[in-house]
Design goal:
single chain; zinc ion binding; 58% helix; zinc-finger; 2 strands; Znf_RING/FYVE/PHD; 2 domains; mainly alpha; 4 helices; Herpes Virus-1; 146 residues
Length: 146
C-alpha cells in the first residue's frame, strides 16, 4: 500500500491508519517519531487519528462544529488513547495478577498448614512420651517405698 502523504510504499512495520480519514501513512509522515510510534499500544493503533483529523475533533470539542463522523468518539481522549480499551486491558492484566497471587497464597498457606500439622503431631507424640516417662517414674518411686 502507498502512503497517503508521500505516495511511497509503506512497510507493514511502519504503517499507521487514521480512523478519521481512513488513510494509511508512514508513522514519520504522520508526524510521529519512532519512539512515539512504538509507544502507541496495539489496541490504540486502531483508534489513531492523524493530526488534521485530530485537529478537527479538537475544534469540535472546543466549541466548533463536529462532523457526525466524530460525534460517537467520546472514549478517545485528546491524547489519542482509547480509555475504555485501556481500562479493559488493565483490568484483564490485574485479574490475571490477582488470580496468580491467590494461587501462590493458597499454595503457601497449604505448605504452612502441613508443616504446622506435622509440628503439632510431633508435640503430641513428645507429650505422650513424656507422660509415659512420668508414669514410669511415679511407678518406680512408688515401688521404692515398698
Amino acid at each position: 500500500m502507498d502512503c497517503f502523504k508521500c505516495k511511497k510504499i509503506i512497510a507493514e512495520r511502519d504503517v499507521i491508519k487514521c480512523t478519521g480519514c481512513n488513510m494509511y501513512m508512514h508513522y514519520q509522515c504522520a508526524d510521529l517519531s519512532e519512539t512515539e510510534f512504538k509507544k502507541i499500544l496495539p489496541m490504540n493503533k486502531i483508534k489513531w487519528k492523524c493530526p488534521p483529523c485530530k485537529n478537527k475533533r479538537l475544534a469540535g470539542t472546543l466549541g466548533g462544529t463536529v462532523s457526525p463522523k466524530f460525534k460517537d468518539c467520546t472514549t478517545t481522549s485528546i491524547l489519542n488513547v482509547d480509555t475504555d480499551a485501556l481500562t479493559e486491558y488493565m483490568d484483564a492484566k490485574l485479574d490475571s495478577l490477582r488470580q496468580q497471587w491467590q494461587e501462590d497464597l493458597n499454595s503457601a498457606i497449604q505448605k504452612v498448614s502441613k508443616t504446622f500439622a506435622q509440628d503439632i503431631n510431633s508435640c503430641i507424640l513428645l507429650r505422650k512420651n513424656d507422660d509415659s516417662r512420668v508414669i514410669h517414674i511415679r511407678c518406680t518411686n512408688d515401688l521404692s517405698k515398698i
